[in-house]
Amino acid sequence: MDENIKKWLWQHKNYPTFPYKKDELTSLLSKIEYNRGLLDGISKSFAKEEVKELEIEALIEEALHTSLIEGEYLKRDSVRSSVRKKLDNLFSYDEDSSTHRSDALVAILIDCNLNREPLCTERLHGWHNALFESGYDGLHKINVASFRTHDDMEVVSGAIGYEKVHYLAVPQKSIQKDMAELLVWCNASAENIYVKSALAHLWFVAIHPYDDGNGRVARAITDYLLSSVSKKTFKFYSFSTAVNSDRKGYYNILDKTTNLFRNREYDFTAWIVWHLETLNHAMEMALESIEVVIDKTKFWDRCRDKGLNSRQVKVLSKMLEKGKEGFEGGINTKKYMAISKTSRATAIRDIAELVAYECLVQIKGSAGRNIRYEILLTK
C-alpha cells in the first residue's frame, strides 16, 4: 500500500484518541444502568445456590459464544464441566466431559471476573498462552504469549485466491508503545465504564498485537472492565452471546470504524452506540434467562414433595440443565434409561409416575413407540 495513502485508523494524525458525541449516548447509558439495577436487584431474591447457577450459566454462554464468533465450536457439556469444576463444590468428576480447550477458556473468563488486579502485558500473555498452549492455530505455528514480530497482519475474509482485506493492523514497531498506552488507560481512565469497555475493545483490535486470538482477548478485556461494575462476584449476562447474535453487524461496524475511507470524520460514536446497544441486549437476554430460573425454582417447589426417587430427580435435573435446546424433541424411554442407567420396565414406571405427578407432560403428536415427554414448568 502507498505509504502516503492514509486508510487505516492508526494512520490518522489524532490516533490514539477516539472522539465521540457524548450527548448521543445518554439514553442508552440510562437503559443499561436500569437493566443492570434489575439484574442486581433480582439476584437478591435468590438463594445462594440459585445465584451460583445464574453465574455458572452466564459463564457457560460467554465461553461458548466468544468461541463461536471466531468460528470455533465447543460442546456445551464440555464447557459446563469446566465451569462446574471451578465453581461447584458438588461437581462429580465421574461426569467430567471437559476438554483442555474448554478448561483454558473458562480459566480466562474466571480470571476476568474475579481478578481485579490491574491489566498488564504479562496477564494478557497468560490469557493468550491459555488459548494456544500448543503453539499452533490449526496447522500454523504462531508466537504464543508474545506480541507478533511482523508487519503484515491483515484481517481478511473469503476463499483462497479471493481474499478481501478488511484491515491492516498497527506496524510491529508500534505495538509495545500502543499496548502500554492502552493498558495505562484501561487501568487509570475515569471514562464511563461502558464507554470504556467499547473503546478498549476497539483500541486492542486496532493494534491486533497477537498472531491470532485477538478477538477473544479483546472480548476478555471487555469482560474484565464490565465485571468491575457489579458488586457481585460474577456478571449475570454474557456480552459475547449478544455479539454473536449480530456477528455480521459486529464485523460491519468494525469495518466502518477502522477504515478511514468509511470513517472520514474520525468519529467513534457509531461504534460506541453499537457496543452499548449490544450490551443492553445482553442484559435483556439475561433478564429473560432469570425468568427461566424462577420457573425452575417454582417447578422444584411443586414437584420436590412428590416423593421422587433418585432416578427421577437425576433425569429431571438433566432436562432442566440442558433446557429445550439440549433436549429438543423431549425425552423418551430410551433416553430415560440411558440417563438413569435403569431397565426399560423401571423407566416406563418412573415416567408414568412423573406424568401423574405433573412433572412431565406428553408432547402433542407423539404416540406409540415414538411417545415423548417434556418438562411441565408451569401448571
UniProtKB/TrEMBL annotation:
GO terms for molecular function: ATP binding. ATP binds at residues 212-219, 250-251. Keywords: ATP-binding, Nucleotide-binding. Residues 119-274 form the Fido domain. The keyword Cytoplasm does not apply. Signal peptide: none annotated. It comes from the Bacteria. The active site is at 208. Pfam families: DUF4172, Fic. This is Fic/DOC family protein. It comes from uncultured Sulfurovum sp.
